[in-house]
Design goal:
This protein has about 130 residues and is mainly α. Strand 1 and strand 2 form a beta hairpin.
Length: about 130
C-alpha cells in the first residue's frame, strides 16, 4: 500500500486500487462458480441416493477352488550353510500366479545336468 504523502500521482494510485479490486472480484467469482458446481454435484448425488438408484462399481471376485495349502508351506532351510534350497531361491522371489505364468511360458529355471553333477571339471595343477 502506498502512503498518503506518496510522490505518486493520484490517478496512478486510483488505477492500482481499481486493478486490485477487479482481481479480488474475479477471484471471488471463480470461487463462487467452483462452489456452485460442487453443490450441484452433491445435490445430484443426494437425489440419486434418495431414489435408491445406486450404480456402484462392481468388484471382480476371484473364485478359485483349486488353491492348495502347499503354496503356503515353508521350504527347507539349511541354517549351517546359510543356504536355501533351489526351489525356495527361485520361488521365493515370485508370487504363485507369476510362477504359474512362467511355467506356462516355459520360463521356469530347471537345474542343469552340469549343476547337479558338481565337481566333474576340477582344476588340475601341474607342478614342474
Amino acid at each position: 500500500m502506498t502512503t498518503i504523502d506518496s510522490d505518486e500521482p493520484a490517478w496512478l494510485i486510483d488505477q492500482t486500487k481499481a486493478r486490485k479490486r477487479r482481481d479480488m472480484l474475479r477471484q471471488r467469482e471463480d470461487m463462487e462458480a467452483r462452489l456452485a458446481k460442487i453443490r450441484a454435484k452433491e445435490d445430484a448425488q443426494k437425489q440419486k441416493y434418495l431414489k435408491g438408484d445406486q450404480n456402484l462399481k462392481r468388484r471382480k471376485v476371484d473364485i478359485r477352488n483349486d488353491e492348495s495349502e502347499e503354496q503356503f508351506v515353508l521350504e527347507d532351510y539349511d541354517s549351517d550353510g546359510e543356504q536355501m534350497s533351489n526351489k525356495c531361491q527361485t520361488q521365493g522371489l515370485y508370487s504363485a500366479e507369476t510362477l504359474a505364468l512362467m511355467e506356462q511360458l516355459g520360463m521356469t529355471a530347471k537345474p542343469r545336468v552340469d549343476d547337479v553333477e558338481g565337481d566333474v571339471d576340477e582344476l588340475k595343477v601341474r607342478r614342474p
